[in-house]
C-alpha cells in the first residue's frame, strides 16, 4: 500500500501520455493565463494532473464510485413493504428461487402470474448462480413458495451485494477498458480520460435504477460496452460474443442490434472481407447455441427423467405459445419436442408480442401522442404497424451512416441514435429503457473533445432529462432523496445546470449552434425545475390525477427527440459523410 | 498557482451528497440520546434539565450543549413535534431521522469554516500541505463513522476546537482563541483533556511577556480572566444559583464506570488487559497467583467492570496521576517555547496522554489526538512518520462501532480510500526534515500498516466463518490491541519528534 520511502524523488518521471497535452486540454479555460479547472470534477482530479500513475488514480476512482453505489443502496428498493406483488426486487429474488429450486425445464413455465421468468437464459443462469450462493448463506431466502415477498434486511444486503459485484465484474471493467481504448485511439491524455471515466461511472440513472430501485441492467450494458470495446480493438468476433451475451441477458439489447449489425456488415464490405463475414456469422450462431445449450440439455434431461415441463397439464398436449396455428404439425412425442417447446416458450416469454403499444406512461412518442390523439381507438395491429414503420424510419439513417462509414469510433454515437429511435418509436417501451440510449451517449465523454462545453452540455442534458423522466417511477417508492442527491451531484461535478450555467457562456465569436443549444437547454431545465416545484406543492386536478406525470412524459418525449436529432447530427458530422458542406459546422461544434 | 484544487467547498459539497445518502444507515443509541435531549430541553424548564430521567439517556453534557439542543429543538418543532415529547422513547419517524441527520451536516459547516481559516492563515509556503491536511480532516473517516452513521455532533465541536487553535496563531486573536476554548469546554467537557496545553500556552504567550517570565501583562491577564469567568458564569451560573451544581457534576463525571469501556479503547490499558489475558495461561508455569473470580469476567467478554487475573488492579488515582505526568512533560517545553507549532504539538500530546492513560476512555476520543495532529502532520517527514500509524490505528479502532452488515463495506472502503488518498498525497507534500530520521521507526510503521490488512480480514470475515458466534471478544481484543500498539508507537515517535525539533 503506502510505503514510507522518505528519500524518493518528489516528482516521478512524466509519462509520455501525460505530456504537454494537459495544458491544452479543452476543459481548461483556454486563453486566460492561469490554468484552472472549469468544473468540479476536473478540480477533484486536479492533483493527479501530472505525474500520478494511473494505477494510483484508478483504484481511488473505483472505490469512490463504489461508495456512492453502496450508500445509495441503503435506501429502499422497488416493492419494499408494498404487497401483494412487491416489485422488481421481488422479481429478481423470485427468479433466484425458481432457478435453484425447480428443474430447468420448468423455469419458463412456473407460475407465470407471480413474476414468471421473462428474461433470456443468461439472466436465468445468473439468477441460478446468485441463488446458489445465497442459499449457502441462508436457505430460507430462496425456499420454494415460502420465500415470496421476503423482506429480511440481511437478504437485502445480499441482494445489493449481488448487484454491486455484478457491476464490478462486468460493467465497470468493460467501461475502464473501453475508456482506455477510446482515449488511446483518439489521443486523449490519461488524465482527461480519468475525468470521463468518473463521469461515466457516476451517471445517476444507472445507479438509481440498478443499485437503488433494483435491477441488473449494468450486466447487459456492460456486455454492450465490451462489444464496443472489442470493436475498438478490432476484435470483431469478440464483439459478437459479447453482444450475444448482452442479448442473452436482457432482450432490450435489441435496441442496439441494428447498429451493431450495420457496423459489422459495413466492416466486412468496405473493404470487402468475406472470411471476416463468415467468421462473424459462425461465432454469432455458435454463441447463441452455447447460450441456449444449458436450457436444452436441461429440458432433454428432464424429459428423460420423466419430468414434464408443464406438470399442470398432466401430460396432455398443449399448443405452442407462438406459431400456434402450426403447432399441430409437430409430433409432441418426438425426442426433440421438449426443445421446440422450450424455445417457443422462451421466445414467447421474452418477447411479449401480444401486449399493447405501451403499458405504463413512458416518455416516448406514442405516449406523448396519446395525449393529443387517443390511440386506444385504433386497432392494435394498425398501431403495431405504425410503430414498426416509425422505428424503421428512425433507425435507418444512423444504420446507413455506420454501414457506409464503419469506423469504430462512431460506434457509440450510432448505438445512441438507434437506441433513441427505439426508445421513442418502438413498442412496449419501459421508462427504465432510457438507460439504453444514455449509456452510449454518455461514453462519448471519453472521446476526443468529449469534455468540451458543447458535448458536455448535450450529454449532461440527456442524462438529467432521462433521470428526470424516471422521477415518477422513483417517487412511487419514496426515492426522492437519492434521486435529488445523485442527480444534483452529477450535475455539480460536470458543471451542469442547475448548479452552474458557465457551460453556456460562449467564448470568442458566438455561433448559432451555441445559441440554439443554450436556448433549448435553458427552456428544458426551466421546465424540469418548474415541474418539480409544481409536483411537490400542487395536487393535480381531481379529474386528471395523472396530469403531472403526463406533462413529465410530454416534456421528456420532446427532449429525447431533440437528443435523437443531436446524436444523429453528431454522427453525420463525425463520420465526415458530407465533409465539404459540414466542415464549418463541425468546427463550430467542437469549439 | 494561487489556489489548490479541489477546494474545501467543493469537497464539502460532494461529502454532503454522500452523507445525505447515508440518512437511512445504521444509527446507534446516541441518536435516541440526542433526540431525548431535544425533547428534554424543549419541553422542560431549565431547572429540570439535569434532573429529568424518563429516558435512561439522561443529559450528561455541559449547559452550552443543552442550549445548543434547545436551539435545534426550535426548528424541530416545525419539522415534527413528535420527537420533542420526553415520553416518546425510541421515536424515529422519517422526519426525525432526516432532521437530526441534517443538523449534523449543517452544524458541521463550522468545521468547514475553521478549516478554511486554517488554510488561509498558513504561511504561503505551507499553504498546499495545509490545504491537504484540511481536506483530510474534512473527509475524515472518523467523523464520517462517528457523526454521520453512529450519530454525534463531533464535526461541529471539533470545528470550534480547530477555530480556537487557528485563532491562537495570531497575537491579535489569542484572547478570542482562549475564550472560544472556554466556550467549547462548556459544550463538551471531554476537551478538558486538552485544557492544560491551553493553560500553559495562554499563560506564557498571552499573560507573560515574551522576554521574561517575570514580566506579567496584567491587562491581558485581566481580560482573559474576566472573559473566562463570564463564559463559565453564563454556563454554570444559573445552576449554581439554583444549587444544582452537585447534581450537574454527578451527571458530567460519572465515576462509577470501569477502567475500560465496553469495548477497549486502544490505549495502554487495552495492552495491559491483553497481557493479563495472556498471563492467565502462562502464569501457572511461572508460579504466579491467578485470581479465579477475574477469569469469569474474562470469559463473559468485555462488558462491565474489568478486573485483572494476574496483574495488579488499576485505580482511578493511578490513571489520573499517569495522565497528568505525561501531560506535564510536553508542557514544560511549551512553557519555554510558546510557538504555535509547539502549542499544537502540546495539545496533541495532551490528547495522547489522556487517551492512553485515562480512566474509562471511549474509542471515539481518538479524534482528540488525530485532529490536532493532522494540523501539523505535514510539517516535515518526521511528523508524517509518527502520524501514519496513528491514522491507520485510530481509524481501524473505530470499526467495531459499526457492526451491521449493510454499513460494513462503507466503513472499510471509505477508510481504505481515505488512507490511500491522503497517505499518498501527504507523502508527496511533506518536505524533508533537516534532522536525521529514525530509520527503524519507518520500517516499524510500514510493517504495522501491512499487518492491518490480514487483521481486518480476520476480524470481519474469517473469525465469523470459523467460530461463528462464539469467542466474540477475540476480534475485538485483537483490534484494540493492534490499534493500541499503533497509537502507543506513534505517541513515542511523536514524543521524540516533539522534543528534538
Question: Would you kindly provide a brief summary of this structure?
Answer:
The complex is a heterodimer of chains A (591) and B (501). Chain A is mainly α. Chain A has helices at 21-24, 40-44, 54-72, 88-101, 121-137, 153-185, 190-201, 204-214, 217-232, 236-249, 257-269, 274-305, 337-350, 365-372, 380-404, 411-425, 435-443, 453-469, 471-476, 480-493, 512-537, 547-575, 579-590.
Distance between the termini of chain A: 42 Å
Coarse morphology of chain A: globular
Biggest sheet character of chain B: none
Most residues in contact: chain pair: A-B, 44 and 46 residues
Order of helices and strands of chain B: HHHHHHHHHHHHHHHHHHHHH
Percent in strands of chain B: under 5%
Helical/strand content category of chain A: mainly alpha
Gross morphology of chain B is globular
Radius of gyration of chain A: 25 Å
Protein name (chain B): Alpha-1,3-glucosyltransferase
Family (chain B): Belongs to the ALG6/ALG8 glucosyltransferase family.
EC number (chain B): 2.4.1.-
Pfam family, one (chain B): Alg6_Alg8
Describe this structure in words.
The complex is a heterodimer of chains A (591) and B (501). Chain A has 591 residues and is mainly alpha-helical. Chain A has a domain at 162-272 and 357-590. Helix content of chain A is 62%, strand content 0%. Chain A has helices at residues 21-24, 40-44, 54-72, 88-101, 121-137, 153-185, 190-201, 204-214, 217-232, 236-249, 257-269, 274-305, 337-350, 365-372, 380-404, 411-425, 435-443, 453-469, 471-476, 480-493, 512-537, 547-575, 579-590. The model of chain A is unreliable at 1-33 and 581-591 (pLDDT under 50). Chain B has 501 residues and is mostly helical. Chain B folds into two domains: 8-241, no CATH class; 316-500. Helix content of chain B is 68%, strand content 0%. Chain B contains 21 helices and no strands. Chain B is globular, with a radius of gyration of 23 Å. Chain B starts with 7 loop residues before the first helix and ends with a helix. The chains are: A mainly alpha (591), B mainly alpha (501). Chain B: It is a multi-pass membrane protein. Chain B: Keywords: Endoplasmic reticulum, Glycosyltransferase, Membrane, Transferase, Transmembrane, Transmembrane helix. Chain B: InterPro entries: Glyco_trans_ALG6/ALG8 (IPR004856). Chain B: This is Alpha-1,3-glucosyltransferase. Chain B: It is an enzyme of class 2 (transferase). Chain A: Residues 1-31 are annotated as: Disordered.
